[in-house]
Design goal:
1 helix; alpha+beta
Length: 75
């Protein structure tokens, strides 16, 4: 990397390769749900949409926040 003073998060590492450098950074752990934030149950989706999520019990955080706009609006 051109910036040698770059500080990487814990658990990160660099591998020097011929002609390039690999930088591995671990994924962030998700933060706790906010008070009042609820994951939307798949059972509450319309019947036509449920087969797409058959192996899941709830939508993820982003899907849960967007479900009303996705199903009840023209946005």
């Amino acid at each position: 990397m051109a910036n040698k003073s770059c500080r990487l998060p814990d658990g990160s590492y660099r591998l020097q390769k011929k002609g390039y450098e690999e930088v591995h950074v671990p994924a962030l752990k998700p933060s706790a749900l906010d008070p009042g934030e609820v994951l939307y149950p798949i059972a509450n989706l319309p019947k036509y949409a449920q087969p797409a999520f058959e192996s899941y019990k709830v939508l993820n955080r982003i899907q849960s926040r967007m479900v009303k706009a996705a199903l009840e609006s023209d946005e």
